[in-house]
Design goal:
Mac-2 Binding Protein; 7-stranded mixed beta sheet; 8 helices; 43 strands; disordered N terminus; binds 2-acetamido-2-deoxy-beta-D-glucopyranose
Amino acid sequence: MSGKHVTFILVVFLWHYGSSQVHPQVRLAGGWEPHSGRVEVFYNGNYGTVCDDNWSIEATHVVCKELGFRKGETFHYDGRYGPGGGEILLDNTHCNGDELSIFDCEHNPIGRHDCSHAEDIAVTCVPLPITEPPPPPKERFELRLRSKNDVEPINEGILEMNLGNNKWRTICADDWNLDAAKVACGELGFSKAYKPTKKYSNKDYRRKSMIRTGIQCIGTENLLSDCEIEELEHRKYCKSRRAVALKCETAEYGHKYSNRPNPVGTGKKNNDKKKNATQEVQSTQGNYEPEVRLKAGAYIGEGRVEVYHAGKWGTVCKTGWDLGSASVVCRQLGFGSAKEVIFDAGFGQGIGPVWLWDMYCKGNEKSILDCYHGIWNGSSCTHYDDVGVRCNVPKHDLKKNVRIVNGRWGSEGRVEVMVGNSWGYVCGDTWDMVDALVVCRQLGLGYARQALPTTYYYGSRLRGAMIMGDVHCTGKEWSLMDCPHTIRANFTCSSPTMRAGVICDVALPDVVLDVHRLREYLYLQDMPRHLLKCAAEEGCLSSVPDKYGGSRRLLRFSTVILNRGLAAFKPFLQRNDWVWHACHLHYHSMEVFSTYDLISRDGEKVAEGHKASFCLEDTECDPGHTKRFTCTTEQGISVNCKDNYKHSIDCQWIDLTGVESGNYILKIHVNPDKFVGETDYDNNEIQCELYYSGYSVSPGRCHYSYDL
Ligand SMILES: *[C@@H]1O[C@H](CO)[C@@H](O)[C@H](O)[C@H]1NC(C)=O
Ligand SMILES: *[C@@H]1O[C@H](CO)[C@@H](O)[C@H](O)[C@H]1NC(C)=O
Ligand SMILES: *[C@@H]1O[C@H](CO)[C@@H](O)[C@H](O)[C@H]1NC(C)=O
């Protein structure tokens, strides 16, 4: 019997029975984790095993619940945890699932069986205790790092703790170790900790204000205050006479890929903690596998959690989701520990499978995929159960050199930047939604609802000069100054009124295309030219001359556009600017709502994708949501509703006339120019492989562009 085995039994024992002398009636043995193993029952002073005859998932539930887990996950006939010893006590166990003890189930008289130990049953439980004891209310001590130059973000310096009322204290280094450092760095927004490279002398910190904490951390805590803090004593008891100094790893934003080390080739064992930390850092240079990402968050380090598996991005269900699992995600992405967990699609619903559920992380996993979870895509969760996280990120003084002024209210206005000692304007010539979202985020105002290239209605008085232009953000920047840009006194802008502005919002829509519906109806139709007058008028036909007999060849398909975001999707134009199309007898509220393109294998556009304008409405809504928008009155798509464009309606096609046979890609992009603000633009494009024989089309794989 291994030492691990012994420890485990002890843990279960203590967990359920404290230190009393009562033996639990059932235990799991031989497992690698506390929630799985061979079932052993206690009878007449000894433990014995249970035969697998007639064992069921109900019996598994009974054992698991008796042990304090939420329920059974599965059971194993295959002797996975080895044969047990002692007597075979139970056989032919029949449970309903609601018995309080395995002994309450029907079974042969104890000890009567026709089995051998090779038939010992083993189970795996869903590893969450039914009731978690409410955590004792703990005082939270704020942390900060102090360094000589104090330019944020500070990642190396003396650690200080706020004992309340701004009583900042340094901490005696006596009990400090890397586990505590990891927790402190996590709370400060960094994913990793190592020993400071600088030497700090007593002169560097305020020794007078030093306290001794007797701190004990495991390393997986979310906050330093969650560690065991035994004492808060005055410095004179500090043996080392040194204060804690930290060096945290500055994580680069946009670590879309995990830091999962290449499993091959790092075989060196090393017990020295300092060297281990260095190894961890080096392992980030290994092969990256895309595994987890945060989507649709307004700020850096927050969003809906999505994981990559079997070629597809999918989401995580709320069952089992907690700060511990969220912290694994945050650290994996290069942030600190988790600050807050978000349930019930708080960042809007995702698409694709709900991959993970019943998550359970120990806290030291390198990747969320190393945590325990239910069978992939095996839950009955829906995207209404999608989870998200807000991670601790390093403190930045982001509001320092950007502000918005003269708006009607605080979340909108003209953008001004500080260069040298004066505020100036940003030229609106290249200003777009991506630039705007960086500004909104940086100012803590949420998502960008609109990017205004000109802001004359925010007052025309020119107080400053145009000093910035050519801004080209990628959307990942923490601040406008991090985006590629030009700063010049009297920046030449097309007009002095082209001053960039933003409208920010905390809730925006998120339109998504339904990939299945597109593939369902995809076919060719030859139409005589004279039946396409309206379509020609709206520019839905290519400029290629008509085919013989004056007909056009149309690739028709259906598009279904869902709004999975946090607010209604409203057209870009105000109602009185809508354009009446007499031919089709409806208003167009947005000239470019989606683009349809046919792309060759070399990436060349072969069929000019016409810009489809639409008449937005709620065609269908999820149960419990009411339709609000119709094409003729108020246009839009409500949250959790969809707008269907059937394959049979005019302009719902690509004009293939004159296109040669071959392999192509059909690309559909909704809101391509980002005119309407959304929480996420990456899910707006889908692509289908398509073979065109010259007479017919056969669609291949269809997927969201980001799944490629
Ligand atoms: C399972 O139970 C049924 C009825 O209780 C019994 O007839 C059968 O023999 C049992 N199966 C085994 C493998 O013992
Ligand atoms: C996930 O499960 C659902 C329902 O069981 C199934 O329809 C779907 O095809 C699965 N998706 C993947 C990608 O496995
Ligand atoms: C900028 O242009 C204005 C007028 O167009 C001029 O008065 C001012 O001196 C210029 N400033 C600089 C720094 O060139």
